[in-house]
Amino acid sequence: MLLPLAAQAQEVPKAAAQLHQRLITLDSHLDTPASLDLPGWSIEEGHEVHSDYTQVDLPRMKKGGLDGGFWAIYTPQGPLTQEGFQNARDFALLRGVSIREMVAADPANFQLALEAKDAAPIAKAGKRIVYMSMENAYPLGEDISLLRTFHAMGVRVAGFAHFAHNQFADSSTDPSKKPRYGGLSPLGKELLREMNRLGVVPDASHSSDQVLDDLLALSKTPVLLTHSGCKAIYDHPRNIDDDHLKALAAKGGVIQMNAYGAYLREIKPNPERQKALAALFAQMREDAKLSPEKRAELLAKRQEIDRLYPEADRATFDDFMAHMMHALKVVGPDHVGIGLDWDGGGGVAGMEDVRDLPKITAALLKAGYSEADIQKIWSGNVLRVLAAAEAAKEK
Fold first, then answer.
1. What are phi and psi of 6, to 5 degrees?
2. pTM of whole model > 0.85?
3. For residue 258, which phi and psi values (nearest 5 degrees)?
4. Burial letters for 342-360: b for 16+ Cβ neighbours within 10 Å, e otherwise?
5. Distance (Å, whole) CA 15 – CA 9
6. Minimal CA–CA distance to 137: which of 97, 165, 116, 101?
7. What is the pLDDT of residues 311-328, one digit of tens each?
8. CA–CA separation, 267 and 312 (whole Å)
9. How many angstroms separate the CA atoms of 134 and 151, rounded?
């Protein structure tokens, strides 16, 4: 009998904390590779989310019981030109190298994972599990064969689009608010075939509902939503409705619940803060290669924005759990997982960084879910989808 979720997240009981540390815990969408290239920043050192705004590092992973996950090669959407494709390709390759260098620099604490079966022995050895993923296939340009390069590097999950339509697929949030292809483009269908051939899991997060329809109809293997939510809780284009949830589950797929506040519920506008942050982020983009001194200056400006224009309205841990509990109600614990979008905008009041992850385990226990259910949610389901992609690939 499932119990209603408590109105507020409580301190984690000892039994829940101990269970959490026993589980193999994976987050399917870590944007933390962006932190690896920050000047003076180290994954080995502990950081504070309210000081440098990062959410994942080795000390915090250990404290929060996060065994690892899918470390994303995220590339912002740019122009659909040969120059744009080449610049994105080079950026994505270098970001992938940064992930591999993180692993190579500390083999005692990090290990690259290439197959579903790799996760358990890596966790047993006390190391952090590093699967690689690609958020936005834009860097592939119009050369599908480039996916082989990224697969050889370690990429095992790949998404099609991001905030805008690209050469492969429609985005759920394109500024035009109009479809370009009505789902996957012809090139996107070729890309899906190559994913299936290589054993790469197709990721439908950020893509439109029509893209998900195409993936469910055409993919030889289950589809993953690496970081998404439920339209029934908040009707946002980035979330999916119950019919799509059921269709995803019917094909063996999994929705990994995100914690990006603006996708969890409506947030009251804060125009002065938004204007100040937009100006700051524009400056950060202009200064692509920051010196440690310049980064410190920009961080000070960010902290000043927080002081002058504090966030008056934030999504909460309960808002996040509302999405998770709804997905569990609709498709059950075999088709729900966790992809919180850390270091990519994720995090809510009450769950600020990976140190707070045991709260999810505690809430699921309190709601009546078993240890076996919770293990599926934390890693079993995403690994099952990965194993299915491996089994179907061309030998």
1. -60, 150
2. yes
3. -100, 170
4. bbbbbbbbbbbbbbbbbbb
5. 16
6. 165
7. 989 999 999 999 999 999
8. 9
9. 10
